[in-house]
Specification:
heterotrimer; A alpha/beta (333); B alpha/beta (328); C alpha/beta (290); A: 333 residues; alpha/beta; Rossmann fold; 2 domains; six-stranded mixed sheet; three-stranded antiparallel sheet; 9 helices; 12 strands; C: 290 residues; two-stranded antiparallel ribbon; VWA domain-containing protein (chain A); UPF0353/GerABKA_families (chain A); vWFA_dom_sf (chain A); transmembrane helix (chain A); membrane (chain A)
């Protein structure tokens, strides 16, 4: 936002009107050479040098424009930015996302479970501008994708690149939770949350989910678990990252609701079941509202003065006028 | 008194042609006047012309001089701005060009870089770290995070094979690093740049001003030696150029030194034993308690000069426009 | 040039150009102007070649031999100077102003007239009648007139010749000589001039300036017309501007000359750089030769 530090200087602009009048319109002004240029009350000579007159007009305009710029520069234009500065520490949130092949099930129209999860994560992250968010994915193994960071753009870029099946075929829920907990251990946040999104049963990994949950609980981490998918047979379609083949088929969907409930309860979290896109949206909204922290912010104003470009322009304009008049047209006075 | 932007003083050089034009215009103007206004006019008319020309030119000169002075600007009023950094953000910016493989700093330049990063991370408890690597261009590898584990695990993969684009584009690296700092927080922001590359003058001033705008201090660590070192290849031997000569990389520290100093940082040599303690002190932000609450900002004093410039312009106009002795 | 300098120049005229005045005016004055009427001079014996119509039959019969009347042009003619003192004459690009030259011409003419014991008067006009000096004889009157020429301070700025002519027509009932001294930067008054020329002997003296013929090369400046106050840029550095301005004044001049010739008004052009006395001399010589 542009403001003037001392707008009272702008009053000088009004002085420009009498100045222009006396300089160019007042007949009693000085600097005029008396010379007869016509017959009294009859024909008088009118110079036809339209090009020269145009140049002179532009030159005069540029002079007064320069004066106006100087006056505006005097008023101290500065660009003031109001920045929100967070004084409080946000909540560290780790998403633990299942990327096993079953997440390709097409029961979350218009897309599959995995993309539906990505969409809600994206929406969640965008709304959490001051809470560091990280991402762990798991299938047969688990890996940290993004450490908890405030760099929302970086997070979203990484999320976009996520693909199914990069970590093999399996569902290592315990490993996912453990990795997430590991990367939260250095966090200075008072509250730490893991949001687990999965559609299957733990069938891989060296760590049992229950013990992983206990570790997390020991670190003061709350785990929200979201089971997604519909029960029964669902269509499935995904691209194998190794062969590039599109695999389609039917899959008998089922997941271990008890396990997820237990994990949630161990860590003081909560279990949700989402069988549709809308339900998933709603659940994320609920978690969002549950995990809201008190935000203390201050508004930092930074101002950057913009007088220099104005003065440079004014100098150029007035120098242009000087140059045209004195050097090109050899002005006498 | 030192000007804030002394480079504008070069404009004062324009005054010489201006004065020459003014003087020559006075004499040619006198001739013009005698041609059209006639020789019968008394000397007082030409005296008037002389006096008027003098004051008009003087006013204009005053305008030019003081406008240039106001452009240069002089540091004026100081005022405190509250500043309470909540911690330290460090983005490590690491050169992963081929030359970082050179082993003049044991075990290798890159390994030395990795050691420095690890030490800083370990010893800065409430710090937040990110890693940017660059070769032909900069890539953000680890976003700013408190999770040092992720930094450590990244360091295990740190090698010159991370990026494929050839070169050593420090500018792109630093730009990426500047953009990697999270917004909306007041923290001490440092870039620790570890490179053996060259930084050219033009790039230097531009990134320096970007860094200053973003309130980022750049600390540069030059790996390598001015004498140069050869680049070992995995299959044994050293990297050769197309002519078959062994490539020798030399450290050119001048640009790095300027970059760090103009952003309020410092330049270190990787071989310097005092490097780590000093760096840790910086990272820990050990500053005086009172001092850290406020930061002194200085406002440029330019208005005074600009008022005089405007006055000069006004005088020059007024002298021309006011008719003297009902004559001219 | 201030009025004091001008005055001294005019005062010097009797001394400096005494010979000129003696030579060209006193001798030729009579014949240069056709007088308003004839005045009986004397009767003398007829000699061959005399006009038969001029024989005075009364004297012839009394004396027995043929006598003729000789006549002399009527004495005491009135010379009236219509002197333009408008602001446009207060300019001049050369050594003198147009007004200076006008004053010298007027002074020369007035001098000659007084020298011949004629009456001389003057109308100083701008857009109004600035001063009216009725025709009178004598050195003292001349001195006063010359003083007026040098020191008049006009109130008006423009120049309205028709106004002055109207004034002359009212006050000069008998035939006389009228000389208009002006730069003719006036609204056209040719109709009034030809009316005047029918009644009086009229000569139009136009004072020109070297800059009218050749616009000097100058830098950029602003010119103010002293009469109208109109301000216009002067681009003397542009050859096109100079050509245009020269053409403007030339057209004006040609028009003036043609109108004068068409209406039978004797015209004389004197440049400020010329010697007015010489110019007058050659003019009157030419006129006598007609």
């Amino acid at each position: 936002m542009w403001i003037f530090e001392n707008p009272e200087y702008l009053l000088l602009l009004t002085l420009m009107f009498p100045s222009i009048f006396f300089s160019h319109f007042y007949r009693g002004r000085g600097g005029l050479v008396p010379a007869s240029t016509g017959l009294w009350k009859s024909s008088s000579f009118k110079p036809k040098n339209y090009f020269i007159r145009l140049i002179l007009f532009l030159s005069t305009v540029s002079f007064w424009l320069g004066v106006a710029f100087i006056i505006v520069a005097l008023a101290g234009p500065s660009y003031v930015e109001k920045e929100k500065i967070y004084l409080s520490r946000g909540i560290d949130i780790m998403f633990v996302l299942d990327e096993s092949p079953s997440m390709a099930a097409l029961d979350f129209p218009p897309t599959n479970r995995f993309d539906a999860s990505k969409n809600v994560i994206r929406k969640f992250v965008k709304a959490r501008e001051h809470d560091p968010v990280g991402l762990v994915t798991f299938a047969a193994e688990a890996a940290l994708r993004i450490p908890p960071t405030l760099d929302t753009d970086g997070f979203l870029d990484e999320l976009e690149d996520l693909e199914l099946m990069e970590l093999g075929n399996g569902t290592a829920v315990g490993l996912g939770i453990a990795i997430a907990a590991l990367h939260l251990q250095d966090s200075t946040a008072e509250e730490k949350v893991i949001i687990l999104i999965t559609d299957g049963e733990n069938n891989a990994g060296e760590i049992v989910p229950e013990s992983a949950a206990e570790i997390a609980a020991g670190m003061g981490i709350r785990i929200y678990t979201i089971g997604i998918g519909t029960r029964g047979e669902v269509a499935i379609e995904y691209e194998d990252p190794e062969t590039g083949k599109i695999i389609t088929g039917r899959y008998d969907s089922d997941f271990d609701e008890d396990l997820l409930t237990e994990i949630a309860e161990t860590t003081n979290g909560k279990y949700y079941f989402a069988s549709s896109t809308n339900a998933l949206d709603g659940i994320i909204d609920i978690i969002d509202s549950l995990e809201s922290s008190e935000k203390r912010i201050k508004i930092k104003t930074t101002s950057r003065s913009g007088h220099r470009p104005l003065i440079i322009m004014a100098l150029c304009l007035i120098f242009f006028d000087f140059f045209i008049r004195k050097l090109i047209f050899r002005e006498v006075l | 008194m030192m000007a804030s932007r002394p480079e504008f003083f070069w404009l004062l050089g324009l005054l010489l042609p201006v004065v020459i034009i003014m003087i020559s215009r006075y004499y040619s103007g006198r001739k013009s006047l005698s041609r059209i206004a006639g020789l019968w006019r008394t000397d007082s008319f030409f005296d008037l012309y002389m006096v008027k020309s003098f004051f008009i030119s003087l006013g204009l000169l005053v305008f030019f001089i003081f406008a240039i002075l106001s452009l240069a600007g002089f540091p004026g009023k100081e005022y405190p701005v509250s500043y309470e950094p909540a911690g330290t953000d460090i983005i490590f910016t690491v050169d992963v060009s081929e030359s970082m493989k050179a082993q003049d700093i044991p075990p290798s330049r890159l390994a030395a870089a990795s050691r420095i990063i690890k030490t800083v991370c370990e010893n800065t408890p409430d710090g937040r770290f990110g890693v940017v690597v660059f070769k032909g261009s900069g890539i953000k590898m680890i976003p700013s995070t408190e999770d040092v584990e992720s930094v450590y695990s990244f360091l295990e993969y740190l090698s010159t094979d991370l990026l494929t684009s050839p070169g050593s584009n420090i500018r792109s690296g630093v730009e990426t690093a500047i953009s990697a700092f999270p917004e909306a927080e007041e923290r001490n922001k440092y870039i620790i740049l570890i490179t053996d590359g060259e930084l050219h003058e033009g790039d230097m001033t531009e990134i320096a001003s970007q860094a200053v705008d973003a309130d980022v201090q750049v600390y540069c660590i030059g790996t390598g030696t001015p004498e140069g070192a050869r680049i070992p290849l995995a299959e044994g031997g050293f990297l050769k150029d197309s002519a078959g000569d062994t490539v020798v990389t030399r450290l050119k520290e001048e640009g790095l030194r300027q970059l760090s100093e103009s952003t309020g940082g410092k330049y270190y040599d990787a071989a310097d034993s005092g490097l780590l303690p000093e760096l840790l002190k910086v990272a820990a932000g050990t500053v005086d308690e009172n001092e850290s609450r406020y930061r002194i900002e200085v406002k440029d004093r330019y208005r005074f000069f600009l008022v005089i410039a405007l006055l000069g312009l006004f005088v020059s106009r007024a002298v021309k426009v006011v008719k003297w002795k009902k004559e001219f | 040039m201030d009025s004091l300098q001008l005055l001294s120049r005019i005062r010097n005229i009797p001394l400096v150009s005494a010979r000129l005045v003696e030579g060209f005016l006193s001798g030729n004055y009579r014949s240069v102007f056709k007088g308003p009427g004839l005045e009986f001079d004397e009767v003398r014996e007829y000699s061959t070649g005399d006009d038969v119509r001029s024989i005075d039959w009364n004297v012839t019969s009394r004396m027995g031999s043929p006598y003729v009347k000789t006549f002399r042009e009527e004495r005491e003619m009135a010379l009236l100077l219509l002197i333009d003192v408008s602001a446009s004459l207060q300019t001049g690009s050369g050594t003198y102003r147009k007004a200076d030259t006008a004053a010298i011409i007027s002074a020369l003419l007035a001098h000659s007239a007084v020298h011949n014991n004629d009456r001389v008067g003057a109308v100083f006009y701008t857009d109004r009648i600035e001063k009216w000096v009725p025709p009178m004889k004598g050195r003292n009157h001349l001195m006063r007139l010359v003083q007026d020429m040098a020191s008049i301070e006009p109130v008006g700025k423009g120049s309205d010749l028709s106004n002055a002519i109207a004034c002359v027509e009212q006050s000069m009932k008998r035939r006389g000589i009228c000389i208009i001294v002006s730069d003719f930067r006036i609204p056209p008054a040719y109709r009034q001039m030809s009316m005047l020329s029918r009644k009086h002997d009229l000569i139009a003296v136009k004072i020109t300036d070297p800059a009218d013929k050749k616009t000097p090369s100058t830098g950029l400046m602003e010119l103010q017309d002293p009469e109208s106050g109109r301000i216009s840029g002067s681009y003397g550095f542009s050859s096109r501007y100079r050509k245009d301005l020269e053409e403007f004044w030339l057209a004006e001049h040609i028009f003036w000359q043609r109108e004068c010739r068409r209406r039978g008004i004797d015209s004389l052009v004197i440049d400020t750089e010329e010697d007015p006395a010489k110019a007058l001399l050659s003019f009157f010589r030419r006129r006598k030769g007609k």
